[in-house]
What we know:
The structure holds two protein chains of two kinds.
Chain A: E1 6-15, E2 18-28, E3 33-37, H1 44-52, E4 59-64, E5 67-68, E6 79-82, H2 94-105, H3 109-122, H4 138-150, E7 156-160, H5 168-185, E8 188-193, H6 196-202, E9 205-210, E10 213-218, H7 220-225, H8 230-235, E11 240-245, E12 248-252, E13 258-260, E14 268-279, E15 283-290, E16 295-301, E17 316-321, E18 327-329
Parallel strand pairs in A: 3-8, 3-9, 6-7, 7-8
Antiparallel strand pairs in A: 1-2, 1-4, 4-5, 9-10, 11-12, 12-18, 13-17, 14-15, 14-17, 15-16
Chain B: H1 2-29, H2 46-52, H3 55-88, H4 95-107, H5 110-128, H6 135-159, H7 163-171, H8 176-204, H9 208-213, H10 221-230, H11 235-261
Helix pairs in contact in B: 1-11, 2-11, 3-6, 3-8, 3-10, 4-6, 6-8, 7-8, 8-11
Amino acid sequence: MGEPIVKIVGVTKRFGAVEAVANVDLEIARGELFALLGGSGCGKTTLLRLLAGFERPDRGRILIDGQDMTGVPPHLRPINMMFQSYALFPHLDVAGNVAYGLKREGVARPEIATRVAEALALVKLDGLGTRRPSQLSGGQRQRVALARALVKRPKLLLLDEPLAALDRKLREDTRFELVRLQEQLGVTFVIVTHDQPEAMSMASRLAVMNAGRIVQTGTPHELYERPATRFVAGFIGIANILQTAPGRWLALRPEKIALSADRPATERAIAGTVVEVGYEGDRSLYRIALADGSTMRVAQTNVARARESAFKRGDNVWLGWSDDAGQVLHE
Amino acid sequence: MSGRVGVAATVLAFGYAFLYLPIALVIAYSFNESRLVTVWAGFSLKWWKALLQNEAMLDAAWLSLRIALVSATFATLLGLAAGYVLARVPRFRGRTLFAGLVVAPMVMPEVVMGISMLLLFVGSDRLLGGPERGFLTITIAHVTFSLTFVAIVVQARLADFDRSLEEAAMDLGATPWTTFLTVTLPMIAPALASGWLLAFTLSLDDLILTQFVAGAQSQTLPMRVYSSVRLGVDPQINVLATIVVAIAAGALVTSAWLTRKRD
């Protein structure tokens, strides 16, 4: 993986009595699209702000491209950030916003003009340079913020909930647009998000955070198929957590379980009753009550066009899965 | 339904009349021919001409204007600093005391401020041989109470200011000082301008505090007007009042407009 672009070593940040970031170690490789995923208050934004230099770690070190960033103020870091609120300067027009960072570097005027035009073309905002931020739509503002950060050619681009302020349809388009840009430019992206499908679909690797700690780091596949803890299993996608022994659990994804009317020939089989059918079009999510009083969730892809779901509420069904369908957990 | 609208309109008309009729009368009587303030004797500009030839009144007006310009400018600079600290520095030793001291002049009776300032200036005159009571002491006194208003306006503006704008500037390579000049200052400029206008107006018409700290030689416009009123009202006062109302109204409208213009 070569020399990592970001190396976080034992970083802790406290606010009063709260440990916002607790002893975090993390390496991010050059050219990655890395996501920090977690619920609100998990410390992901604080970690991003530590990288940008807006917060100082109480303990530990942050190295960017091999250089220790301790004590380096934000304006001297080779990093740029796209803020959740976009933080566009309302008193400057779009071109003025994008040019702001280049002016601070002392880039010559003609070069500023060229690079601003390039950056605006990159995010498909050509010709909107003279507009004010207040005259733009939410999606356009987001792209101005992106252009403003990218025009500086940073080694690392931090994106704080980049899609949270967009409506749903635009969010999905923008997701792929961001990935395309990242691949085209080769800049390392670090995205902070609470949106689990977003992180899964965009990131090459992601870290799941909880209570200031990184619980697990890996590719989207690894996190979904091989979660390390019950927290990760429950946070990413849906999981049935079955206790198999004291201190031992099995995390079983709903789509890894087969439903049938008769006892299946799989390695594991258990009988239950359908208590709820959630029809989502492409799939149906069943809630099955077992004899011991617990419930399990099972998903079935609706491959064939049928008038109604295969099983109805109150039907007695069998659940079957193979021995390697689930992940064994110890915590 | 139309009856109720009629009642509301009447009440409104009475309300406005109560507030503004006296001012309208003053303006109208400034164009009066008669020497008597309360008797209308036809249109004339003679009191306007008389005022423009009244040296004593013009000197007083010029002094007041200079004091207002200088004190408003210093009050704005100091008020900006105080408001910035109150809005941006969440914790420092003596913060509560500082916040209290900044707004104290607003609730302190002017007579008390006047006496304490007089004592200060008399004391410093005795110990240091200055400053001489006049332009300088009046200006200092005006800065003291009007900076409070600027500080409050600036603090309010900074409080609803998105901090991430400043962070974005620093993230894009601006030093803290450049950030202040290129982002913070342009954003709060309307608040500063309306704070300046407020300080200017307050200084222009202050009488009580000024009387304590003005020397024997210097008379500001309000002092001049007050003393001439005691000798009997002359329609020149109406003219002067009209001019002052025009300036104050202009400042008020500009200040409101500047505050609204901020996105």
